[in-house]
Prior knowledge:
By secondary structure, chain A is α/β, with parallel strands linked by helices.
Amino acid sequence: MATIEAMTGDEVAAEAMRQINPDVVAAYPITPQTEVVQNFSQSVANGRVKTEMIRVESEHSAMSACVGASAAGVRAMTATCANGLALMWEIVYIAASYRLPIVMAVANRALSGPINIHCDHSDSMGARDSGWIQLYSENCQEVYDNLIQAVKIAEDKSVLLPVMVCFDGFIISHATERVEILDDEKVKNFIGEFKPQYPLLDLNNPVTYGPLDLFDYYFEHKRQQVEAMENAISVIEKVGKEYEKISGRKYELVEKYNLEASDMVIIAAGSTAGTIKATIDELKEKGINVGLLKIRTFRPFPHVQIRDALKDKLCVAVMDRSASFGARGGPIFLEIRSTLYEEKKKPVVVNYIYGLGGRETTVEHIKKVVDNLSKIKKTGKVDRLIDYLGVRE
Amino acid sequence: MKKITEVRWHARAGQGAKTAALLLAEAALSEGKYIQGFPEYGPEREGAPIKAFTRISDTPIFIHSGVTNPDAVVLLDTTLLGTVDVTEGLSGEGVVLVNTSASPQDIRKRLNINEGKVYTVDATAISLEILGRNLPNMPMIGALIKVIPILSLDTLLKGVRKKFGKKFNTKIVEGNVSAIKKAYEEVKSE
């Protein structure tokens, strides 16, 4: 039977890792991810997992060790954030291009400088072209559920790509919430035994990982990575349906909240999607209707599902918790606008950059966004295409 | 009635406000509630003013930001009065619970508020007497559940025994239980 527990995002990530029981975990602690590694290390020390825990000297080594383990033919996991992810960078790309199904928890945190330990998405958004699948979690429950599903998504034969499970640093990583934990057995059966496709240590079927690959085949290998990402769309949907059967919780590429009831939509990823739901409920009582389209899957970008969800909508506000310096808006905004380009009838789409470095984003802030959407709906006029929510100017 | 009960804790780092905020949430979970407990992390240094938050609800909690309109404010250290606006956003019927030997009437004057309900309890004295240390956080939870009925004393004590039982010896666990009971009895209203 499932149990109800009070856990922080970090604690529940470590609990999911305990149940997944990976063969190898190589990790280096960094705030606010530290307690994932700390709690999982306790499971290792207490013999609750059979994992070989490699205490590395840096994140670059953490990812390198995961690459080695995964290529050798075992299930490997790690966790990091912010500058730790930045230090991994070189190997993050290599993990994806070797098609290694590594799963990594990322407690989203602002990148230095100046030094800031709080939440924004600049770390994982920076890695959006690295070839990793990215799932964003709204709350502690989703951290747990996404991590378990990530293993199955990554290891699917038509995918074989690493997955980042992102959750907001401190806001989720250090918040205690109610979470439902599945039975160990159920999780074990769900993810199944790891069967490596091309293990380096299978001496009867020798393979090579990462040789020189110049203008002769490099392009073809990249093309295959693109295809694997495209395949991931239906695999994420399929795994979500299977997970619903064992958990009762529904997981899709995107989540719709009050979307049908309104022609005004806010799009967001991460914990602020929850604050938007709370705002929607509050405004509904006052007769104002607005919908939420939550981005659970950012890579691969589910453009077909998003295009369909935004059909007949009049105005859309895209919330980005990271800035793309010099670009015309944040990363999610750019994807949404590109998705709608071919549509004959398309909504007005505006962008809000918010919450950088952990700047608090409240119901009052979301109400301002809704006010602006109402104004745009009424007048058809956009004052600011890209605005900054809660910044002092 | 509001669906979610929201509590904001004000203290100095090291006084156990985070532990209290989380423990209250965890104890409420055993009554089938939805919960959130989290601190506001600033530069972490002992003695710095800090905030922590607890939310308790019968239905799922979606919001993910700090408590700005609390139903109850718990102040663990009166030296914060005048430095931090502890009653900011407090509703008209809101509760202010202060750790002090002073009367609720005196505290109301110092808070300079007309609305709300003010309660006091000398959690520091209780803690020094029973635990031999100044740890006002646990007695303050005892006083809080007396003035806002979010949790039964039994449930709270069960939660304390469960959480502390893993980490501390019986003497410390039962000391905390006694301190909570005493504050529950001694909390003063206006």
